[in-house]
Amino acid sequence: MRKERDPKVSVKKIPLTKAAMITKMQLTEAAMFLELKKAEQEHGRDSRWTAMLRSQWSTVNQLMENLGIPTDYQAPDNAAATAIIMERIRQQEQA
Predict the structure, then answer these.
(1) How far apart are CA 66 and CA 58, in angstroms?
(2) pLDDT (tens digit, 9 = 90+) per residue, 64-80?
(3) Averaged pLDDT, 72-89
(4) Most CB atoms within 10 A, among 5, 19, 75, 93?
């Protein structure tokens, strides 16, 4: 016997609102930036892996700039990336 789907449950995808799209893009850009900074820390700035991640992040960042979407500096991934940058600066100052 086949069970019928509950009519209250929709299987249609609900399109994102503009605000949700912007937020999703900002969070994606922040995650990509954190991944880039981690790769720089692990593999160095000149590695092929880091170069690929930088290119990918740069593409998203440029798209956001072209669309007038600001970077969300309050996003947790951006805060983590900033911590990595600050640690690198501290290490350079101590050297």
Answers:
(1) 12
(2) 999 999 999 999 999 99
(3) 95
(4) 75
Residues 6+ positions from 88 with CB-CB distance below 8 Å: 41
Max CA separation in the chain (angstroms)? 74
The packing angle between helices 18-43 and 48-67, to 10°, is 160
Contact 38, 77 (CB under 8 A): no
Cβ–Cβ < 8 Å for 5, 15? no
pTM of the model: 0.81
Q: d(Cα 86, Cα 26) in Å, to the nearest integer?
A: 22
Which residues, other chains included, contact 13 with Cβ-Cβ below 8 Å and sequence gap of 6+?
none
Residue type for 60, please? Answer: V
- Which residue has 């399109």 as its token pair? 15
